[in-house]
Amino acid sequence: MIVVTVEKVPGYEIVETLGIVMGNTVRSKHLGRDIAAGLKTLIGGEIEGYSEMLAEARNIALERMINNAEKLGADAVIGVRFASSAVMGGAAEMVAYGTAVRLRKVGS
User: Fold this and answer.
1) pLDDT (tens digit, 0 to 9) for every residue of the chain, 108 residues total?
2) Residue 97 is part of a domain; what is its CATH number?
3) Domain containing 17: what range?
């Protein structure tokens, strides 16, 4: 599966647009991360527990988006973007979305 943030894939032409695909996950903090984050805000610096949590959330959302594109028979997802939002106190949603397409190699 080709996954790109641009609207075209070099060397390929889009032969069919299958629609928007997305994947999401909602993650919450846990007490250990909360305590560490509270201490880190006092001294400054990266809050590694949250960075790891968001990286994991991005990977899960991306994987779910790709799975949805594969169900449609897509060769690629173009225009991929990520978005996040707080859904409640202590929980955040990560969304990956793009356009599922079928491609043909140019010159084939």
Assistant:
1) 999 999 999 999 999 999 999 999 998 766 555 555 555 555 666 777 778 888 899 999 999 999 999 999 999 999 999 999 887 767 789 999 999 999 999 986
2) 3.30.110.70
3) 2-105
